[in-house]
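Input/output pair, single chain:
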Amino acid sequence: MAEETKRNSIASRWLRSFAVRLLLLLVVFTFVPVILYQEFQGADEEKNGLLLSSVSEKGRLAAMVLKPFMKPGSPESIERLNDRLRAIGEGDETVIRLLFRPSGQFGAKNFYLISAWPTLSTSDLEDERNSLIGSGILDKIRDSCDWNYSVADRLQPDENEAEIVTSVSPVLNDSGCWVVITSDRTEAVLNSSLGREYWRTPEVQIAAMIYLVMAVAVVILFLDGWRNLRRFGRLAGRITHRDRGHASFRSLNRIPELDTVAVEFDRMVQTLRGSARMLRQTAEENAHALKAPVAVIAQALEPLRRHAGDEADPRFIRAIQVIEKSVAKLDSLVSTVRKLDETTADVYDGVLEEMDLSAFLTQIVKSYKADLGVANIEVVDDIAAGIRVLATEDILETALENILDNAADFSPEDGEIGVTLRQDKGLCHIDVVDEGAGVPGNDCQRIFDRYVSERPQNNGADGEDHYGIGLWIARRNIEALGGNISAANREEGGLRIRITLPVQH
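Output:
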């Protein structure tokens, strides 16, 4: 059940991601127009079929009307054809052309333009004939005269007019092959997709332009919001790491609607800085206020200690010893609390900088080798060179000191502490191992909890009481640097504590 809940949480988190939503948006913007285009194209083809059937019927009717007058020869017969063409085409925007190819001749070039409506001058007839031959309309009937079909070919007779050829109706008789070609110039036909690809129609192009502008606007809106959030993230890193006091979310924001969020972020940063200053001030004031009566009690014990002889009441001597021990413990506790508050303030307000972890860790280990040599504990190090991280010396040094102190406290006399530093891709690992007893019950992560200590009282290497905050401080400091810390019992005995930090390239 817990595993399923975790999977659902991960899936829900991914669905809320800007990147996933932008990807889904791009998929929608890519496939929706394709689907709509196919649907609209199908509907357009049906509409064009009906439109073409309607207008091409005019050509077949014109051919039937003109068929009785299709006789070669005399000017009177040509005049009658012209009169019939005028009667058919007058009052309509249909263009009618009548061509004739004498019997026994073949090929499209042997057709002659006999008559046309609207009327053409004699000089224009030859140009019109060549235009029709060049368009390829007559190629289907160049060798025979028995093919009747509807077409949708666009013609541009001149720069100012366009037309669509809607039908080619051949009529074969004894004199030869007669062809009636009809074209349409109506706005409904010219604006349709007849004779051209559907995407070339003005409606599709305008719709595509509007859709593209809308898609680009939405994507830009998403990207702008995404960039602004990433800009906020980079600024948060700059405020945390280097640019303390000089940058603000408000000045970096580019989206007016996020001004309120930016102002609240700036207020939160100022609150954290104020809290850090207050923690340091309070820690110092409390330590000063508590140290004073502790010092007074310690000084007041001096006369009592001097007057307590061998013959004094044992209870009197015992009372003085208890008071002395309690004063020492209280003094140690005051120092510990002050250190805890100052460490918390450093986490809130520490400025991270790029540092050479290899050199820093080498120096720390060198100092510990000198200090632990007195206790006959050897420190062995294996530190890779050139590893750099983003941290502060104070925060990192406090964490390392507490971990090394813990290893030293549990190491047997003449024991060995190992310190290694290795890099693995974008992470580095600091391992501190000892030869102590390890953690009872294998509950290793518990040692990083506050006020948890597995050592007996007064069993530290420094002879002081321990309150179980050293490893807790180490974990908090490492996590404040963007890393993590873990512990595990070693098979050969002892404990391994590992610090993992991101590497700076």
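The CA atoms of residues 181 and 288 lie 111 Å apart. The radius of gyration is 48 Å.
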